[in-house]
Amino acid sequence: MAHPMAQQLRFTRGEFLRCLDGLSLPDAYVRHGQTNCISWIIGHLAAHENQIFVFLAQGKVILPELRKVCGFGSPPSAPKLDDMWAAWHEITANADRYLDTLTTETLQERFVWKGEPLEETIGTMLHRTIYHYWFHIGEAHAIRQMLGQRNLPQFVGKMADAPYLPHK
Helix 4-20 vs helix 81-99: angle between axes, to the nearest 10 degrees? Predict the structure, then answer.
């Protein structure tokens, strides 16, 4: 059974998918003021997971160009929605291979980059990833509301899918 923190990330990903269910192609590219478009948000969250749970955790390099298009600080863009979904699915599947190995002890460790341990523990990075998703879920939901879309999901969804479990 996956660590409760990994289960929380999976629940959060499910809420992300629920938020974007029924998104039309034209709506995926709309920007309001300073917001990024939803296709960028999908790629951005994929790039984040790629950096932490694929590259740092596993030493694997997949879709390195994604960070240039959708990474933190990248210029606004409207990447192809199908490409961003494909990237997100590929990266989260690869990330899950690592997430399934997590233990309470592992979450207290740090990844090493260029010979130095990173400031945040793996557990803190996992927390950051979950919170990062929620930030962009709210942003994407607001974008869809500004587009006048109705019948959007209510948050937070079915918590029975992610019950509280004490860590051991």
Answer: 170
Question: Which of 104, 109, 74 lies closest to 5, judged by CA?
Answer: 104
Q: Is the peptide bond before 156 cis (omega within 30 degrees of 0)?
A: yes
Give, in degrees to the nearest 5, the angle at Cα 63 between 57 and 69. 110
Q: 51 is written with which tokens?
A: 């950096």
* pLDDT tens, per residue, the chain with 168 residues: 889 999 999 999 999 999 999 999 999 999 988 889 999 999 999 999 999 999 999 999 899 999 999 988 888 899 999 999 999 999 999 999 999 999 999 999 999 999 999 999 999 999 999 999 999 999 999 999 999 888 887 767 777 776 777 766
Tokens of 134: 């929620």
What is the C-alpha to C-alpha distance for residues 96 and 94, in angstroms, rounded to an integer?
5
Cα–Cα dist 149/168, whole Å: 43
Burial 99-111 (b: 16+ CB within 10 A, else e): beebeeeebeebe
Q: Which of 43, 42, 33 has its CA nearest to residue 68?
A: 43
